[in-house]
Amino acid sequence: MAKTVLKNILQILIILIFNNFLAQKTPEKLPKNVVNDTISKKDTIVVKKEALDDVLRTKADDQRRDVPKKMTFLNKNAQVKYQDMQIDADYISIDDNKNLIYARGKQDSLGKIIEPVITTQAGKKYETNEFSYNTKTKQAIAYNARTEESEGVITAQKTKKYNDSVFAMRNADYTTDEYYIKKKDTAADYFMRASNIKLIKTKDKSQIVTGPIQMYIERVPTPLILPFAILPFSEKRAAGILIPSFGEREDVGFFLNGLGYYQPIGEHFDLKILADIYTKGSWNLRPQMNYLKKYRYSGTFTADVGTMVRGIKGLDDYTKNSTYRIAWTHTQDTKANPFLTFSASVDIVSTKFYNNPLNNNYIFNQNVLNTQQSSAVTVTKRFLKLPATITGTASYSQNFATGLADLRLPQMNVAINQFYLFGSKTGVRQGLLENITVNTGFNLTNFVSTQENELFTKAMWDKMQTGLKNNIALGTNTTVAKYFTFSLSANIDNALTTKTLKKYYDPVKNADVDEIQKNIAGYSTFSSSASLQTTLYGMLKFKKGSAVEAVRHMMTPSLSFTYSPDFSSPGFGYYKNYYNAEGALTPYSVFEKGIVGSPSSGVVGALGFNIGNNIEMKVKSKTDSTGVKKIKIFESLNLSGNYNFAAKDHPWSVFSINGQSSFFNNKLNVNTSLSLDPYKIVFAPGATQGVRTEQFGHFSVQGFNVQLSYPLSSELFGEKTDYAKKYPAKGEIRNENYYFDDDNYAHFDQAWTLNINANYAYSKGLSALGTKIASVGLDGSIKLTPYWNINGSTHFDLVTKDLAYTRIGFTRDQRSFTINFNWVPFGQYKVYDFFIGIKANILSDALKYKDRSFTQPGAPF
């Protein structure tokens, strides 16, 4: 009994302690559907939640309500509005028990859907055959749904909406065909087909994630199959696969050119990696990185690294060479820092790369014809208060013909801003003294010319030369006798170098030897000149009513006198003598092979002349509103030469004549140059080189060059046809560019261009037989149809009678994508290249038809 009482007391104490503990806790917030009784905190009333979160608004031509089954049926022009969603269909049923809305499109007599269900939600429109929506779970299922996203449209057999952000689709096609999207065509010209697609939508962007996906063109499957695809619907840069072109090249076989991947890196960088693969074993890797900081700078790093394989392994014609090319460009925005600018244009190419280019783009853009390559990095410093500009440059140039590389590392130039030596007394500068200007500066250069394999080796550093030059130029001018301009100038050059030349005859080698000595030496030179110039005008008028009304001639003659002393005289010490292999005493300059150049030898007291001419003609013209038009006979025609009073022989120089003109409404451009030697050249019997005599007045041609260029186009031959007025019917193909005559034949504008370039050059000098260079070049394009374009270029050597570089290409605009074909049928590199690319921006990032990055116009940043 006592145990039972004790047990009961313990139970009561435990209950009291637990209740006291609960009483001390803060009451939790009640759910929204629980109403808190203000009289008692212990008593609550649970209110049942409504089935719908909003009012369901309906309308239709025929509405019927089945009260026992809690069903509503809407027929003909049915519409349901619920929250942000609107459904328009031919038939809609609403099941209150299952919280389900079902909609179906309009059917024909055979049960085929002829008008879809239109569902609009959050500004997006969806077209389906059938549509089911659960108002409780917010999930939906649609059949044969058509969903527009950004630039494209997705059509899927079955689509399930899990929520407002995730849609799963089965057996779906995606296309960006504008005509299919705008329902101008019932079939897309291309689409990407996948068995499973997931559409993910967020507040800022949306994207498609697919499994295996295949491209179809005109409903024909292509070999382009990707294991997966991510298509971002955003204006921002996005990663994607780079689709290659394919073709064949005679020396390396079939190829895929430009296969790769594009990856944006943060806000300021993007990376592109391309690969070129050839069936005969050659390969090439081409990484490229772009960078950009708005209003500051932008640039690009590119490289070509590969292996060229030619011939068959084991045979004599087999070769295998490694090639490389490294390029870097950097541009600083002018607004970033006007006092300190940095720029770079670096393009370093191995000789083997030049001889064995694996990147076919170098063939199509004719870079393989270049024989020289140059690179430079430049830093320029300006000052707010100091009148000076400092420029530092590192440059590198290659000559693929000789294999030599010239390196300037570094080169610094200090330029002092031009200033007047004397001030003006009246505020307006007058006379020779007040107009004297001074230009001066310093130039420091480290230079070496070496073989490519000696770069940055001890052999290169031993050849390195250092030179410092200073130039002081004074000039002034004034007007004499109202019509003449009189000018005076003087130049002073100072130079220092770390290496000089010593020449001597080596009896052991029986040859003249050039020995470079390491010592500091310098020189100073000066020269002065005076010139007088004026302008003369002449007009020749013809009788009234003549086809030619007048000829106008403007002549600009000038005379100049230049003087400089003989710096080869022993008093200056810039020249020395040595006995050559024939035993003759021969003078030479100790600076002869140096970086600062050599002082001039011989006294110069030369009177020079230049006569500039401009000749125009006025003719009657019916096409001109004024009734006359000007024809330029010679835009410029210059004759120049000089007579050296101090010369012991041949005081007259070679005469030069240069002309430039244009004809046929400035279409035909002509540039000519002619060199005439005033002294007679005689040849000994059987000799190939002549001797210049002192007989003046023969004026033999030493060189002649003429260049012509003429651009032709369809607009030059007849007026443009107004097809809309001429033909009664307009085509419905794409952009309605076709017009049809009464016989239903299509007409369109076949625009074409043809640029003709011709060059002829003759040089003779003292040679008995001169050399000739003559070539004709053509390049142009023609539109066979508004969407077919053929273009090409070729050059024909008139001397060797051979075709030089020739390229033929065509492009086909296929609505949503472009087909490009390029072919080089002749020459060292015979190659053709074929490429298909999608034009839509969304797929230009995913499949990269265009390399859209932030360094190109129109791309956001």
CATH topology title of one domain: lipopolysaccharide transport protein A fold
Low-confidence stretches: 12-49, 845-861
The total of beta strands comes to: 53
Shape: elongated
- What is the CATH architecture term of one domain? Sandwich
Radius of gyration: 42 Å
Largest sheet: 26 strands, antiparallel, barrel
Q: Ends: how far apart?
A: 89 Å
- Return the average pLDDT rounded to an integer: 83
Note down, in words, how this protein is organized.
Strand 1 and strand 2 form a beta hairpin. The chain is elongated. It is mainly beta and 861 residues long. Among the domains are: 189 residues, lipopolysaccharide transport protein A fold; 175 residues, no CATH class; 159 residues, no CATH class. The chain is 6% helix and 59% strand. This is LPS-assembly protein LptD. Pfam families: LptD_2. InterPro entries: LptD, LptD_2.
Q: Secondary-structure map with pairings?
A:
Layout: H1 2-23, E1 34-36, E2 44-46, E3 57-59, E4 62-66, E5 71-82, E6 85-95, E7 100-104, E8 106-107, E9 113-115, E10 117-121, E11 124-128, E12 130-134, E13 140-149, E14 152-161, E15 166-175, H2 178-181, E16 190-201, E17 206-210, E18 213-217, E19 220-226, E20 229-233, E21 240-242, E22 245-249, E23 253-265, E24 269-278, E25 283-293, E26 297-310, E27 319-332, E28 340-349, H3 351-355, H4 361-364, E29 372-382, E30 388-399, E31 404-420, H5 431-434, E32 437-451, H6 458-463, E33 465-480, E34 484-506, E35 511-533, E36 536-541, E37 548-564, E38 575-579, E39 585-589, E40 604-620, E41 628-644, E42 655-663, E43 668-682, E44 691-713, H7 723-726, E45 729-730, E46 739-740, E47 746-747, E48 752-763, E49 771-785, E50 788-797, E51 802-814, E52 817-824, E53 831-838, H8 841-846
Antiparallel strand pairs: 1-2, 3-5, 4-5, 5-6, 6-7, 6-10, 7-12, 8-9, 10-11, 11-13, 12-13, 13-14, 14-15, 15-16, 16-17, 16-18, 17-20, 18-19, 21-23, 22-23, 22-53, 23-24, 24-25, 25-26, 26-27, 27-28, 28-29, 29-30, 30-31, 31-32, 32-33, 33-34, 34-35, 35-37, 36-37, 37-40, 38-39, 40-41, 41-42, 42-43, ...
